[in-house]
């Protein structure tokens, strides 16, 4: 249960870290990162990769600046 809280607090935690944390707390039980992945997937928590977006070009920055100047609060 605590591992689910860990994932909710920090969603960027990887499966290996979660398994390592669990294994250090409970010496009598050992779980693998694949077990963590399966359990979290059953609970509806799946991994994803962030979408890679290109950086703003100089012309995009200029256009954005002009757009902002035209629309003051």
From TrEMBL:
UniProt GO MF annotations: DNA binding
Q: Which residues form the signal peptide?
A: none
Name the GO terms of the biological process aspect.
DNA integration; DNA transposition
Which InterPro entries has this protein been placed in?
A: Transposase_Tc1-like
**Which residue numbers delimit the Transposase Tc1-like domain?**
5-71
Residue stretches in coiled coil: none
This chain's protein is named Transposase Tc1-like domain-containing protein
Q: Which organism is it from?
A: Brachionus plicatilis
- Print the organism lineage: Eukaryota, Metazoa, Spiralia, Gnathifera, Rotifera
């Amino acid at each position: 249960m605590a591992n689910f809280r860990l994932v909710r607090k920090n969603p960027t935690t990887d499966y290996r870290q979660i398994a390592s944390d669990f294994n250090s707390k409970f010496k009598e039980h050992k779980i693998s990162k694949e077990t963590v992945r399966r359990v979290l997937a059953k609970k509806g928590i799946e991994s994803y990769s962030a979408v890679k977006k290109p950086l703003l070009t100089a012309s995009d920055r200029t256009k954005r600046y002009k757009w902002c100047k035209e629309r003051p609060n």
